[in-house]
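[step 3/7] inverse_fold.run input=structure_tokens len=243
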């Protein structure tokens, strides 16, 4: 069994650890995290060091690869770049929870996470470093470009094309044949019935563009003030639609 490391000792790291343990293909030797002290323990495993310690850790623990357990798409890319700079050609693995289902002729890149209950239907393509979260589904012939993600309980119809770094939030429903650009965020609970472009925040039922967003802007937690400002913007959009 190959020894691997998890990058990111957070809640998302715990879920990735659970996937790896349940999958039973790899032996996890510990976590690597730049923001937690060496020796910090999570779920019985230690933080072994930071990314700069990677050459030593590979030799010390006979590490054959690892996976980046960072929920934010852009931050995940920054960590991947940092790792690749320290150890070129590092082996990034996929992890597929045994309760995830991958259909016929699904093509996978590297560094992807498939959580319990995730479903990827036939002829879909998952590029690199994507997250298909708990109980989310990607319909047939779907394409997820690198560093994109589906949050828990997303239901995407067939033929979705999801751009690089774009995030579909909790409980979003997407009809068949939708294209979403790069660096876009679809807000929780939205119903997506139209195509959307790059660098925007979208939500509502039906989903509408709320504002533009910058590359790398955090999206996993929204300050209350910003949330209520955007909520008012959404109310205004829906009011105009009803006129």
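[step 3/7] decode complete -> sequence:
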């Amino acid at each position: 069994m190959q020894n691997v490391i998890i990058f990111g000792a957070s809640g998302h790291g715990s879920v990735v650890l659970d996937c790896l343990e349940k999958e039973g293909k790899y032996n996890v030797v510990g976590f690597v995290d730049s923001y937690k002290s060496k020796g910090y323990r999570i779920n019985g495993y230690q933080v072994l060091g930071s990314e700069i310690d990677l050459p030593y850790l590979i030799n010390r623990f006979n590490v054959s690869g690892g996976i980046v357990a960072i929920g934010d798409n852009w931050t995940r890319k920054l960590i991947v770049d940092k790792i690749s700079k320290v150890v070129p050609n590092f082996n990034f693995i996929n992890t597929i929870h045994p309760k995830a289902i991958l259909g016929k002729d699904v093509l996978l890149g590297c560094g992807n996470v498939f959580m319990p209950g995730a479903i990827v239907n036939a002829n879909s393509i998952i590029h690199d470093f994507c997250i298909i979260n708990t109980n989310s589904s990607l319909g047939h012939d779907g394409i997820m470009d690198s560093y994109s993600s589906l949050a828990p309980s997303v239901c995407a119809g067939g033929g979705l094309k999801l751009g690089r770094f774009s995030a579909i939030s909790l409980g979003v429903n997407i009809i068949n044949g939708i294209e979403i650009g790069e660096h876009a965020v679809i807000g929780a609970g939205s119903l997506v019935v139209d195509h959307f472009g790059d660098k925007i925040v979208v939500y509502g039922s039906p989903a509408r563009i709320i504002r533009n967003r910058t590359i790398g802007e955090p999206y996993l937690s929204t300050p209350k003030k910003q949330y209520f400002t955007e909520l008012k913007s959404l109310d205004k959009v829906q009011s105009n639609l009803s006129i």
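[step 4/7] annotate
The helical segments are 11-23, 54-61, 73-86, 224-242.
The chain is about 20% helix and 30% strand.
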